[in-house]
Amino acid sequence: MTDLEDVDLDFVRLGGTGIQTSELQFGTWRFGKETEEGNVEIGESRAHDLLDAYETAGGRYIDTADVYGGGKSEEWIGDWLADRDRERFTIASKIYWQIRDGDPNSRGTNRKNVRHRVDELLDRLGTDYVDVLYIHRWDDETPTREMMKTLNALVEAGKVHYLGASTLRPNAWKVAKANQLARDEGWEPFTVLQPRYNLVDREIEGDYLEFARSEDLAVCPWSPLGQGFLTGKYDREDGLTGESRAAESSRFEDAYLTEENFDLHDELDAVADEVDATPAQTALAWLTHREGVSAPIVGARTVDQLEENLAAAEIDLTEEQVDRLTEAKGGPYAGL
Predict the structure, then answer these.
(1) Does the residue 135 lie in any domain?
(2) Number of domains composing the chain
(3) Longest pairwise C-alpha distance within the chain
(4) Per the residue annotation, which of 54, 61, 68, 208 is the catalytic one?
(5) Nearest to 196 by CA among 327, 325, 66, 297
(6) Ramachandran bin of 29, using left for φ above 0, alpha for ψ from -120 to 50, beta for the remaining angles
(7) Which residues span the domain enclosing 23?
(8) Pairing with 106, which of 7, 178, 245, 272 sits 20 to 30 Å away (CA)?
(9) Would you call 54 a catalytic residue per the annotation?
């Protein structure tokens, strides 16, 4: 297994934009996140330790959102960045979810909400701009023209460099329509997509990926390890009988703890043994070998977990190994 001392993350082009990004991005959605018991999953001190480890490995792309930890994620990233050269890092954040009870205007991509939210997140991050601003979900209540004109104004004002759309697998056509409108009007289009994608969750294969490739849009997948299923921590026997204590919910069990997925995991384990890596590293390496994928977003609760994930960048899979993993789970797009 590769040690972190041997990891030096490369830069890859962010789709059709003019900038480059770390081949593995660091996701911070657990920063400040409270559990049902009222505990904080990752506090400020550990958050900074994780950011330190990512930086040490050559990582320069940090992904967050204004609702992560109720804003604490952005605040802690901002505090950490204060002692560093901001220009050396690519920072992405997201807006959409309602932030004030009883105020419907504090949700979505209406002009009032977007302008306010961006000013607030920039203040928390302690920076004049974000490199990528995602809409966290599609807002059907706001006219596309209003949204795109507002987002374009942020780019023209220098508060945002590039625009992205997160978690829109069924709605790629809406992004296509918005981008056509932007081109017609001379506005900034969406250039980055952030879907769920991993060895188990393959729903973007087909039209979504083909659309992204044809438009040269960056694809930066979240949940690259299938909510932990691809790390190997779930026991096959317990998982199939519904007795796995590690399972977080019945919804998770239905989606991941299936015979088909454990068969896939058997192949993942076999390839991991061949390349002297962990299942998690091998699953991440598969993603980095997929045509059209720019840079997966990895997260971790501990520095050890992050080090394991980042070491995936040093794993080189053969074409035959990539094909075996791709075809381990059947479906209409298994061979893509």
Answers:
(1) yes
(2) 1
(3) 57
(4) 68
(5) 297
(6) alpha
(7) 8-194
(8) 178
(9) no
The reply to whether 331 falls in a domain is no
CATH code at position 24 = 3.20.20.100
Q: Provide the residue-wise pLDDT of the chain in tens; the chain has 336 residues.
A: 445 567 889 999 999 999 999 999 999 999 999 988 889 999 999 999 999 999 999 999 999 999 999 999 999 999 999 999 999 999 999 999 988 889 888 889 999 999 999 999 999 999 999 999 999 999 999 999 999 999 999 999 999 999 999 987 777 899 999 999 999 999 999 999 999 999 999 999 988 999 999 999 999 999 999 999 999 999 888 778 776 656 567 889 889 999 999 999 999 999 999 999 999 999 999 999 999 999 999 999 999 999 999 999 999 999 999 999 999 986 544 445
One-letter-per-residue 3-state SS of the chain:
CCCHHHCCCCEEECCCCCCEEECCEEECCCECCECCCCCECECHHHHHHHHHHHHHCCCCEEECCCCHHHHHHHHHHHHHHCCCCHHHCEEEEEECCCCCCCCHHHCCCCHHHHHHHHHHHHHHHCCCCEEEEEECCCCCCCCHHHHHHHHHHHHHCCCEEEEEEECCHHHHHHHHHHHHHHHHHCCCCEEEEECECCCCCCCCCCHHHHHHHHHCCEECCECCCHHHHHHCCCCHHHHHCCCCCCCCCHHHHHHHCCHHHHHHHHHHHHHHHHCCCCHHHHHHHHHHCCCCCCCCEECCCCHHHHHHHHHHHHCCCCHHHHHHHHHCCCCCCCCC
- Indicate whether 272 belongs to any domain: no
pTM of the model: 0.93
270 inside domain: no
